[in-house]
Specification:
Blueprint (H helix, E strand, L loop, with lengths): L17 H20 L5 E6 L5 H10 L3 E8 L2 H8 L7 E6 L11 E7 L8 H9 L2 E12 L4 H8 L11 H6 L7 H9 L4 E8 L6 H7 L3 H8 L11 E7 L8
Parallel strand pairs: 1-2, 1-4, 2-3, 4-5
Antiparallel strand pairs: 5-7, 6-7
Helix pairs in contact: 1-2
Length: about 250
């Protein structure tokens, strides 16, 4: 298996695209919290990865009274060590060192969240298939990925600045990315496994490159609007979000 500790530095605040990543994860976390709150009673939740910790912190902040158990699976021992020193949660929490490709448990979950995970793995279909089998009846997978057709990328391509919308750059590789999705390929991943995509939206609207946005020196209020404006043009949002269910299962929302 790949040594995931090699990517730890990309999750520091000094990473050039840290603000973008925190922003899109903030938008994703809002969708995840909404999905969790749609269930009656307490829930069991599983996270694939901890990364920037943006999502896990949002879970603690907004879902502390909603969660029965929380299991997080992380492949980097260094990230686990870093997170473990800060973790203080008011519910049954298990942080497991393991690879998504081989992780297994007797537990079953109401919500499995894989936000910005599937662009990192060798076989996304394998991961989705394995974890869909860990859902309780009526459970949901909340997933998100970077969008190859983000507005800033499409505009860059039309301006002749980006030859290939689906090509990875050096910063993608530093994060451990292996691919880009677009809205069609993201949906096709789940439908190819005979899963239902019950909801889709966009996460964060990024009209220009990071360096161009920094030059604009936008007020924080404008940046916060962009974070939650992905629904205005989902096909061209910075990130893609989907809720996935096993066909025939009762929907709680």
């Amino acid at each position: 298996m790949e040594d995931l500790d090699q990517y730890v530095d990309a999750y520091d605040a000094s990473f050039p695209y840290a603000r973008d990543n925190h922003g899109v994860l903030t938008a994703y976390a809002a969708e995840l919290v909404s999905a969790c709150q749609g269930f009656d009673g307490k829930i069991d939740i599983c996270s694939l990865g901890i990364g920037y910790e943006t999502v896990s912190r949002s879970i603690v902040l907004h879902l502390a009274d909603k969660i029965r158990t929380y299991t997080a699976v992380e492949g980097s021992r260094l990230l686990i060590e870093r997170y473990g020193k800060q973790a203080d949660v008011p519910y049954d929490f298990e942080l497991v060192h393991g690879y998504f490709e081989t992780f297994d448990t007797d537990r079953r979950f109401d919500v499995i969240e894989m936000g910005f995970v599937l662009e990192h793995v060798t076989d996304p279909a394998l991961i989705v298939d394995r974890f869909s089998r860990l859902l309780k009846p009526g459970g949901v997978i909340c997933a998100a990925v970077p969008n190859a057709l983000s507005m800033h990328r499409v505009l860059g391509a039309r301006a002749g600045l980006l030859p290939d919308l689906y090509a990875l750059n050096e910063w993608d590789y530093k994060l451990g990315h292996k691919r880009y999705f677009d809205r069609s390929s993201f949906r096709a991943l789940f439908e190819g496994l005979n899963l239902d995509v019950s909801r889709e939206t966009g996460l964060l609207l990024k009209p220009f490159s990071t360096s161009q946005l920094e030059m604009l020196n936008l007020p924080e209020a404008v940046w916060n609007v962009l974070i939650h404006a992905g629904d205005l043009a989902p096909e061209y949002a910075y990130g893609l979000y989907a809720e996935i269910r096993v066909p025939g299962a009762r929907v709680h929302r």
